[in-house]
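Hey, sorry to bother you again with one of my protein questions. I've been staring at a protein lately and its backbone has me curious. I owe you a coffee for this, so here goes:
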Amino acid sequence: MHQVVAEVWRGEFLESVHHGSVIALDANGAPVLAVGQPERIAYPRSSNKPIQALAMLRNGLDLDGELLALASASHSGEDFHIAGVRRILESAGLTVDDLQCTPDLPIGERALAAHLAAGLGKAPVYMNCSGKHAAMLATCVRNGWPTANYLDPTHPLQVAMVETLEDLAGEPVGAVGVDGCGAPLFGISLTGLARAFGRLASAPAGSHERRIADAMSNHPEWVGGTDRDVTSLMRGLPGAVAKDGAEGVYALGLPDGSAVALKIADGSSRARPVVMVAALRMLGVNVAPLADLATVPVLGHGEPVGAVRPSAAVVPAA
């Protein structure tokens, strides 16, 4: 069902491969690249977060700038991220005790090291989804909705999120599950995910979609973190809206409405940026600013001895 989309080379030896599915849509929504089964339902995981944030704006959430980017984030747990989560909660008269996301440690390497050195443990506020959860709670307060059961799939907030996802993706939700943070998880096709990101990135001024796009592209370090590839991706492509997701998912929209969505079948994150850059090249995007993401080094004794590279399925024909 999936195809080989990335190769792992150790020296001149092909050591392993990553299978996956990829869709790249042009500004008119026509496929330029379709590999594997992009029409098959997948869980976008955290790549859904910008669309969930849009649902919250449509229902009265009053955030912009870095805090709106944080509501769309899988943050690294750096100090500014945690302070931002507290600001969102305080604006709604809430505290970190109201968060119902899974207790966790920071996911950023440097943030985790500093966290452990300070003798700190797991807590919901450090979980990478805490910005989204804080914004969900603030949206509930704004609407007078109960906060105790905001993760229930039948809660008005979650119903609004389904409606917004179906609106942007142009297709019905095809699966419902529970995400790693405890929130409901809604599945759509990769094609629908790409379509949604293209609509976000190309939205007109004054729209809620434009607010999301501007917040993320102007504050990419709040969407990921100082050392994260999703941050580098948006910094390298001004105006782009990108979001990584667990189990090998990645989505990106460009200001002209073109977009890419992909999933690495084995759930690995290392091939995601490599395949994303290759797909962007197929769209005719100048990927020179993304040179550091175009391949991922394979290490031997701590030194590069090879690389993860895109396969022929996602590389333009010579």
